Amino acid sequence: MTTVLQREGQDGVTKNLVHPKPISGAQMLVEALRQENVEYIFGYPGGAVLPIYDALYECGIRHILPRHEQGAIHAAEGYARVTGRTGVVIGTSGPGATNLVTGLADAMMDSLPLVVITGQVGTQVLGTDAFQEASIVGITMPVTKHNYQVRNVADLPQVIKEAFHIANSGRPGPVLIDIPKDITQTEGLFDYSQPVKIPGYQPTVVPNRLQIRKVASAIRAAKRPVILAGAGVLHAKANEELLRLVNQTQIPLAHTLLGLGGLPGSHPLFLGMAGMHGTVAANTALYEADLLINIGARFDDRVTGNLAHFAKQAIVVHIDIDPAEIGKNVPTDIPVVGDAGEALRMLLAENLVVTEAADWRESLDKLKQDYPLWYVDTPDELKPQKLIELISEVTKGEAIVVTDVGQHQMWAAQFYGFDRPHRFVTSGGLGTMGFGLPAAIGAQLGRMDSTVIALLGDGGFQMTLQELALLVEYRLPVKVVIVNNGSLGMVRQWQELFFGKRYSESLLRSGPDFIKLAEAYGIRGHRVHSYEEAKDVLSREVQYDGPVLIDCRVTPEENVYPMVPTGKGLHEMVGVKP
Amino acid sequence: MNRVFAVTVNNHSGVLNRITGLFLRRGFNIQSITVGATETDGISRMTIVLNVDDERDTEQVVKQLHKQIDVLKVQDITEAPIVARELVLIRVNSPLTTRSELTTLIGPFRASIIDVSRDSVTIQAVGSPEKVEALIFLLQPYGIKELARTGVTAVLRANDAAELSRSSRNYVLSI
Ligand SMILES: Cc1ncc(C[n+]2csc(CCOP(=O)(O)OP(=O)(O)O)c2C)c(N)n1
Ligand SMILES: [Mg+2]
Predict the structure, then answer these.
(1) B116 and B161 share a domain?
(2) Which runs of consecutive H residues, i.e. helices, occur in A205-279?
(3) What's this model's pTM, rounded to 2 decimal places?
(4) Does ipTM surpass 0.95 in this model?
(5) Chain B partners within 8 Å of A198 (Cβ)
(6) Looking at the structure, do residues B66 and B129 belong to the same domain, yes or no?
(7) Could you report the per-residue pLDDT of A470-506, keeping only the tens digit for each?
(8) How many angstroms separate the CA atoms of A376 and A381, rounded?
(9) Structurally, how many domains does chain B consist of?
(10) A172 lines ligand 1 (CB under 6 A)
């Protein structure tokens, strides 16, 4: 007879690690999700997952039903981003699975932990172009950290266990499990007691001490040091350590887009965001530094600009949990493989002191004062940048801000002023329009006690707006703020600057009345045209405990500045404050 | 330049696809790839010859391969003392008049004739890629009707095997 191993779950309920009797594959899945303390499943049913949905019925795990599978996976990403926990997604075979591909690519780029379950046609018809068959394992190989197809029900528990382990360890990422329908209906013994052993997957978490010593000596010798911190710091929950290192050494710091909130935005040594729409101070620091310490960022081309001009005088330190990122884009002098938190703690133990770079700090501080982020305020218009400042003011800088992709995204990054980590949710690496609304839903589910602002462009909103239904259905008090410039603003900006103002297909000339649309979904809506109106509506509505949509008619021709044009170095910015 | 990588992988379905897909999207240029079972059950070995530009690309190849969860071990064995062999089958025109000449010609290559018809013979040879190239070159004047090469497969020379596997592991850990 099988012994029944038990363990205590988060909710105090004891769970069976081994079932005494055979259960179906579908029941195994539900049981495994319970073992993993899954709070929410973001999913959409269909033929191939009917047995799974039957097992989910009244199973106690909350299921969120979006209106499109893309909504499910972006919601899971938003949830994962704010909680650090693994987002769980279920989709049916064929079209259900292919609808998840954009979200997988997005999560892969931005290192978000997801476990994605797809249904598949039965093993007896696999490979015959059966109804709703798509080779999702083949399709998603390039956009998953790993993927599986389960051909034997006995393997299912261990595969799920491995998937959760892989998704949320090392450099996090999405893992897909494809389960043929008959496997979900076949019975087998459920055993979740085996440890995960994956010989080909052993991420280095603790860095090599010698390498840390080298970093410490480089810091001691530096005259113009700068830190570039990315999302790796947030994944490692190491913002406190980062703050201590900055305070201890007085090294100025720039963030990547996804790193924002690591060091408080109001810290005197915070130079701002680096890269294409970064600040003069941050980009100049990266350009002129003699020591560049990259912590948990991957030297994306949007950050570095033209590599021929990037950090040419600097000794480059790169701390990353993924060795393949080191040296990929930028030649690295001191590589450090490991978790950002571990590396920072080891660095703090080196008893570093204030770097002898007072002149450097002073010159960067002067750049920060002389060339702040800027815009020209016109009294009778609603300037998008000023709208973001207003949102920051009425939410005391403490909201979770979830954006879509485009100009409004950059303005949010520039003007909100993130003082705390895990407050900025945005699609960085893939730049996925349509991400914002569903990600805001996931973020709100993960943080029911926080104010969540979905800051969306009028273009991107219309890619996934059907998810408005969820705000009412699940009583999510998300504040949907549409930065409405009547155009695909970022595209329009590039056409203005680089294509002789030939606005080819970038103007949204007609569209639905967003207020009526909101009302059709049972959400109240407001339209604002001026700063005063916006202030009045926003300060009232952030207090409201339900969902609301605010259509903000901003200056249509506003551009995002400053800017490093493509192909240029970080020192060649245009649109700098005169 | 061509570099030779020995890659140990789980013999799961789709592994070859993972590896070639990786090369495709990272823009690595495959010259040849061979796969086969090893002394351990469930573990396969690939010998991959890639055309890479420099040290940095080589490092990326190693690291990207290593990142694959089904990849257990990656070694760049280009500069290591290795035994590298390839098999070639060549069907060549051979009327009866030239047949003894052909036999003499392939002798030094330790190649053999494994199939014969009225006007052609099929030659089998095993050797280093250079040797195979040389044989093909010599046979060309006779008229090659069909040719199939397996691509290189390689192992380390006995004395050095332990030494290199230690140093190659260090390579991965020290970065
Ligand atoms: C799915 C997808 N398609 C196309 C793009 C290219 N793109 C980047 S920004 C942008 C315009 C976005 O317009 P909108 O949502 O109104 O935001 P705005 O720039 O006006 O703030 C487009 C089309 C993209 N990022 N994602
Ligand atoms: Mg717009």
Answers:
(1) no
(2) 209-221, 231-235, 239-249
(3) 0.94
(4) no
(5) 69
(6) no
(7) 999 999 999 999 999 999 999 999 999 999 999 999 9
(8) 11
(9) 2
(10) no
